[in-house]
Amino acid sequence: MKKIWKYRFLLMIVAAWAGMSALGFMNRNTAYERYEIDTKKTPYFVLVLEGIRDGIYPWSGERMPLWEIWEEIASRQESLFGTEEEELLVTETTETPQPETENVTETLERTFTRVEKDYFDDAVFIGDSRTVGLYEYGGLDGAVFYATTGLNIYDLWTEKICEVNGEMVTLEEALSTQTFGKIYFQIGINEMGRGTIDGFMEAYARTVAKFQELQPDAIVFVQGIMRVTKEKSENDEIFNNVGINARNERIAELADNRSIFYIDMNEVVCDEEGNLDESLTFDDIHLFGSKYGIWVEFLQEHGIIVP
Question: What's the Rg (C-alpha) of the chain?
Answer without folding.
Answer: 24
